[in-house]
Structure formats: structure tokens, C-alpha cells
Fold this protein.
Amino acid sequence: MSISTLSKLTVPLDSSASASNQGLLMPKLQYRFRVTLENFGRSTPTTELTKQVVDVTRPNVSFEQITVDVYNSRVFLAGKHTWEPITLNLREDVSNNVQKLVGEQLQKQFDFFEQASAASGSDYKFVTKIEILDGGNGANAAGVLETFELYGCYCESANYNTLAYSTNDPVTIALSIRYDNAIQTPQGTGIGTAIGRTVNTAITGGGAQ
């Protein structure tokens, strides 16, 4: 009886949409995550960055609006898309590992001493991976539930933040990371998974399946 009642802790659905014994699925938790940066800075490894992450924002995509004026009304279409920058907050360590890697990445983008810029984007761009984990650790290795892979990344800004006598907080660096594209892995879990392309001629409608 107890198991039967637990399966009812969810939103009631039509019997054709859900099995009667289907309970609520476990949610992904915000604090179970890992961030890795590939080809970031010069020094290796970059694992200290992963260990010193405070928080990170997930990707946000938006589409520009195309307005088509028609008889007595307007129709709207999706235009070019834009990936908004993510923010990565890092704790600074007393060995200066984080500061060194961040400085190296900024120097790759622009040499502040020589006042020389990189020859091309491929000279400084890196890959960011944001993984959501299942809580495993140690002998029970963490499983990856989902990964956002961000390609063509560069540091749009680096904020070394503030120091204050009145606080107990660690020193942090906030990076705003701009990127060219993002996909979710493994394949079949979201953005980047092929779903087939339909070709129609009408400007509006309910959408083809």
C-alpha cells in the first residue's frame, strides 16, 4: 500500500498520457555539476580551475524577430539566433593557479605588455564543458547526466571583483564567456540532436511534425 500511494506524488494525467503507477522522476540538482575548460590559457593541467568553480550560468539562446506585415495583421518568424554569454565565478587560490591561467588566457587574446593582438580566433578560443552529475564520488564514480559543450569560447570580460575588511568571503574572479555555438550531449538529449527537417511553403500554421 505504501509504495502504491508514493506513485501518486505527481501531477495527475490522462490515462492515455501516463501509466497509473508512474511517479515523479528525480530532478537534476543545481549543486551537482562540473566545469572544465579545454585549451584555456597555457599552463597544464587546468584542473585547478575546475576545483575552484563557485558557480556558472547555463547557456541562453534567443532568436531575433522577423516581422512580416500582411493584410490587416502581422506575422512573426524566427530570425538569426544569438547565444548569450555565460558567467563563470572562480575562487582565487593562494598558489595563484587560477590567477595564472586566467591571465594566460587574456594574454592569448591580447598581449597587454606588448600591445599586440592575436592573429586569428583559433589562436585563443577554447572549449567549455558544463556537466550535470548524478552525485557519485570516490569509489562510486560520478555519472554524467548531461553535458553542455560550448565551442569557440573567449573571455568577453574578466572582473577581479573587490576586497573588503568587513567580509569573510574568498577572493573571486568573474569571467564572462562568449561562444559561437553550444550543443548538449550525449546525442538525443537536447540541442544538437538531429530531428529531421521538414520543408513547407506556408509562412504560418500549427507547425509540421
